[in-house]
Write a structure and sequence with these properties.
single chain; alpha+beta; 10 strands; binds protoporphyrin IX containing FE; Catalase-domain-containing protein
């Protein structure tokens, strides 16, 4: 057949055979006089159409399933070559292609955008020395600091195993018993819990990273912040609730339309920089992702500008199949000793191998600019030439490979001595939340915080509410007084959300349906 005419392509079967309008074949299928009346195995058109359809789904992300995505670029505006040799920061004016995906966390793929939740902020930088993924959130701290709790955290925010709906009792029960999340809860129930648009969210790295020069063994600890140039604008709870029903895709549409109109969202990348020596004596453990580094101690320094300027040509191909991972790093950027970060470095590629397939790095949305990785071969859906006849074993004499330089620098002696901080919660964990409460009052956001908090808590079982109040008393007694007032009758049995799952223990035995 002649090459396809793009203006009016000839419809073909999946193997390229030109074919007739699929619906006109129905007559043949249904009419015995025309040799039809039966759907035959020889009807390739019908079979492949039906067979492909149920295979059009890949597993949705177990968290961060709903998102908007776009292409863009990053431009260096300030020189930071004194702290890192990462090639993407090598000179002011240097531009790097970027893929972005901004998500909610708990909801499924079809869920509403304007819910109170963290927003994920994932970026893939296609640098000259491989991809660098920034996989952050729009709040500066996280709920847990022990990675083994991650599945539990998310289950408590997602659907109850019996009722299959989100459940305030299990949400608060998880947090009552894992109080290191108090700081993050304050951020979530403050104004930032619902952004006005995805164009107005902050993007925090949350963890401490290392920026360094592996060649000379120097490095600094850094925290990364993408600040929206249009301001960090939040949405009123009432509007959010209304839009969640009226316009569930409000944020996704908003970002798509803005980019389509040429009103490109931009962010400024800022960093906080800490010398390793300072880390050893700093008052907070810098590997604890429930803590911030106050700006007064470590001021924000600008680095560059991120612009999202192109919508995906096809959402599934560019955004759904995209796979971001904190382990995707470039020379000059390294992980710190935060065990959350280290666990994440395992979990994301693991998820991608399952969700997209083991050769997910070859897809156009994930593929690095230059890759030569001949010790990973074959596997389903190999499409990159598979390195032809190149040796597939290390140290081959037949084709020598050049090796890249060292990728990271260590700080091991000190790291080895950092105390295990993950399981125990002490009063120190409530200091930053206490400071934030003072700020809420200064910013006149205290009323809203109490209203958001009580609005969610009142749906929990009364005993769970009382436990939560005990936790808030560790932050500030004033929160408790105002919360108790706002909860009023809800602290009794009145008003309990009876869609709340049966409290465990009162439930029929497992397999109660038999
Ligand atoms: C998505 C695991 C903590 C930000 C995911 C996914 C997994 C995961 C399995 C789905 C990945 C996929 O299917 O492609 C974990 C684990 C954590 C953790 C095990 C802690 C131990 C965090 C933290 C942040 C974060 C602290 C923010 C700093 C994100 C983002 C996505 C995501 C932005 C969506 C990425 C995308 O757009 O594809 N996480 N996560 N996660 N996580 Fe985490």
């Amino acid at each position: 057949m002649a090459p396809q005419n793009n203006d009016k392509p000839v419809y073909t079967l999946a193997e390229g055979r030109p074919a007739g309008d699929p619906t006109s074949q129905t007559i043949l299928r249904g009419n015995p006089l025309k040799g039809g009346g039966l759907a035959l195995l020889s009807d390739t058109q019908l079979i492949e159409t039906l067979a492909h359809f149920p295979r059009e789904r890949i597993p949705e992300r177990v968290v961060h399933a709903k998102a908007a995505g776009a292409w863009g670029e990053f431009e260096v505006t300030h020189d930071i070559t004194n702290i890192t040799s990462a090639n993407l920061f090598s000179e002011v004016g240097k531009k790097t292609k970027v893929l972005a995906r901004i998500s909610t966390v708990a909801g499924a793929k079809g869920s509403s955008d304007t819910v109170r939740d963290i927003r994920g902020f994932a970026l893939k930088f296609f640098t000259d020395e491989g991809n660098w993924d920034f996989v952050g959130n729009d709040l500066p701290v996280f709920f847990i600091r022990d990675p083994v709790k991650f599945p539990s955290l998310n289950r408590s925010h997602q659907n109850h195993p019996q009722t299959h709906v989100p459940d305030s009792s299990m949400f608060w029960d998880f947090h009552n018993n894992n109080q290191e999340g108090t700081h993050c809860l304050m951020q979530l129930f403050g104004q930032r819990g619902v952004p006005e648009s995805l164009r107005n969210v902050n993007g925090y790295g949350v963890h401490t990273y290392k920026f360094g020069k592996p060649e000379d063994g120097t490095f600094k600890y850094v925290k990364l912040h993408f600040k929206p140039d249009g301001g960090n604008i939040t949405m009123k709870s009432d509007d959010a609730v209304r839009l969640a029903g009226e316009e569930p895709d409000y944020h996704v549409k908003d970002m798509y339309n803005a980019i389509e109109k040429g009103d490109y969202p931009t962010w400024t990348l800022m960093i906080q920089v800490m010398d390793p020596k300072e880390a050893e004596t700093y008052r907070w453990n810098i590997f604890d992702d429930t803590r911030i580094w106050p700006h007064k101690d470590f001021p924000l320094q600008p680095v560059g500008k991120l612009t999202l300027n192109k919508n995906p040509a096809n959402y599934f191909q560019d955004i759904e199949q995209a796979a971001f991972s904190p382990s995707t790093m470039v020379p000059g950027i390294g992980p710190s000793a935060d065990i959350m970060l280290q666990a994440r470095m395992f979990s994301y590629p693991d998820a991608a191998r399952y969700r997209v397939g083991p050769n997910y790095q070859q897809l156009p949305c994930n593929r690095a600019k230059y890759v030569y990785s001949p010790y990973q071969r074959d596997g389903p859906m190999r499409i990159d030439g598979n390195y032809g006849a190149d040796p597939d074993y290390v140290r081959s004499s037949f084709r020598k490979v050049n090796s890249g330089g060292p990728t990271d620098v260590a700080h091991d002696e000190w790291i080895g001595s950092v105390a295990n901080y993950t399981s125990e919660v002490t009063d120190e964990d409530f200091e930053q939340p206490r400071d934030l409460w003072k700020l809420f009052k200064e910013w006149k956001q205290d009323e809203i915080f109490i209203s958001n908090l009580s609005g969610h808590m009142k749906k929990a079982l009364p005993q769970v509410q009382r436990e939560a109040i005990k936790v808030w008393s560790k932050v500030d007694q004033e929160i408790v007084d105002r919360l108790e007032k706002a909860l009023g009758d809800y602290l009794g049995d009145k008003g309990v959300d009876h869609v709340s799952g049966t409290p465990y223990g009162l439930q029929p035995a497992y397999g109660g349906g038999y």
